[in-house]
Amino acid sequence: MNWQAHPAHWHSHTFRAMGCEMAVWIELKNADTAAALLQEAEALFRSAERRLSRFDAASELSQLNAQPGVWTAVSETTWQVITQALFLARETGGLFDPTHLTALEAAGYTRSFEQLAEVSGVNGTATAVATFNQWQTVQLSAESRAIWLPPGVKLDLGGIAKGYTAQQVVNFLSEWGPCLVDASGDLTAGAAPADWPGWPVAVLTPYTGADEPREELFPLWLVEGTMATSGIDYRRWQRNGRAAHHLIDPRTSLPAETDLLTATVLAKTAVRAEAWATAALVAGTEVARQRLTAINLAAALIDQNGGLFATPALEPFLTLETTQPI
């Protein structure tokens, strides 16, 4: 969000974590209390990143990935993120799959995107491998809070970890006042600010370059829910002279060949919005519209020709003036 003006008792804090520019907002009259709470919010992201980053060899996730064929006990945070990710893999019919790290690395995404962007090309050849529904091979032991990964299977929690943590931050800050987390455009909101129908947000046009401004397609009021966007408009790189991106199609283990450029999904929980945004992007326009409509999720899909497609649950917000909250 980039508001030109906002009430003086809306306080914000920006920082970088989980590969994203983060902004956390809270409505609170006491500025000192707000500042302290926003620092705690950042600390929650830092703690989660230390556990869940695949780019940190010492993280809990990396340690789990390094021990295939062994039951590995994990923290409550890691357990929650992984079990929710596997649940959403089932709900999306496998189009969202947290077990695609090997394929992602084969596609060239072997370091954080900031570092990857500094490299003009990535060597090697990505090869299609039958890994669809590979998530079903992960075994869980709730009694010992342990996870077993078969050889060759590694987890990438990415957006799900970010969404889960954003939700935890909102839950924490909501005890003090209305709040919102903006994780590079993925927005998770608590209650509406006083005298406002919600937090004023918008679906934006796709990213076309650092020097090109993004425009609002339409505004929304966001309340106690998440608006997540998945796209192939930003995290792209060159591999052997060809464009590659970070969204793997589990049916091929290759970067998804999709007619969509971005998919924005609204849901009550951040992890569900994140998973379905990814699944929609991988599925493509027609399948995404069918599946999102069937489960009554609001979504805006933008194809690579600039066409905008909305699910029925979102259509009222395209015509209403900004007076109704989501």
Structural features, described:
There is one protein chain. α1 (31-52) packs antiparallel against α6, α3 (76-91) packs across α7 (270-283) and α7 (270-283) packs antiparallel against α8 (285-294). The protein has helices at 31-52, 60-65, 76-91, 101-106, 113-116, 158-173, 270-283, 285-294, 315-319, and strands at 10-17, 20-27, 72-73, 139-141, 146-148, 179-183, 186-189, 199-204, 216-222, 225-231, 236-239, 242-245, 248-249, 254-255, 260-267, 298-303, 308-310. β11 and β12 (242-245) form a beta hairpin. The two termini are 17 Å apart. It has a domain at 60-158: ApbE-like superfamily (T-fold, Orthogonal Bundle), CATH 1.10.3980.10. It is built from nine helices and 17 strands. The model is unreliable at 112-126 and 319-326 (pLDDT under 50). With 326 residues, it is α+β, with helices and mostly antiparallel strands.
What does this entry show, briefly?
The chain is α+β, with helices and mostly antiparallel strands and 326 residues long. The protein is 30% helix and 25% strand. The chain is built from 9 helices and 17 strands.
Q: Any key phrases for this structure?
A:
alpha+beta, globular, single chain, three-stranded antiparallel beta sheet, 25% strand, disordered C terminus, eight-stranded antiparallel beta sheet, T-fold, 9 helices, 326 residues
Q: How is the secondary structure organized here?
A:
Elements: E1 10-17, E2 20-27, H1 31-52, H2 60-65, E3 72-73, H3 76-91, H4 101-106, H5 113-116, E4 139-141, E5 146-148, H6 158-173, E6 179-183, E7 186-189, E8 199-204, E9 216-222, E10 225-231, E11 236-239, E12 242-245, E13 248-249, E14 254-255, E15 260-267, H7 270-283, H8 285-294, E16 298-303, E17 308-310, H9 315-319
Antiparallel strand pairs: 1-2, 2-6, 3-5, 4-5, 6-7, 7-10, 8-9, 10-15, 11-12, 13-14, 15-16, 16-17
